[in-house]
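Tokens in:
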């Protein structure tokens, strides 16, 4: 599962927190809980493991106010993958 991040208004950490909170709210209202559970799992894992300060300083696209295509996912080893314009960082 890939989660699209909109970083045009804020940084990666704020966007992940926003999506996490939205997903938790949707979970209790949704019929299709499996997909939302997976999304919550990925977002929670990202919030707990990523070094957002380092990411923002290394990749300005993640600091916000950019229109780059950014996605978040997990690989087979359950590690967070970030894609910027289709390229894994």
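Residues out:
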């Amino acid at each position: 599962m890939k989660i699209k991040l909109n970083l045009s208004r804020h940084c990666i950490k704020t966007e992940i927190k926003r999506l996490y909170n939205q997903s938790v709210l949707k979970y209790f209202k949704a019929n299709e809980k499996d997909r939302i559970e997976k999304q919550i799992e990925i977002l929670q894992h990202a919030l707990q493991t990523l070094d957002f300060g380092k990411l923002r300083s290394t990749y300005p696209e993640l600091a916000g106010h950019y229109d780059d295509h950014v996605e978040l996912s997990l690989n087979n080893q359950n590690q967070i993958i970030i894609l910027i314009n289709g390229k894994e960082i």
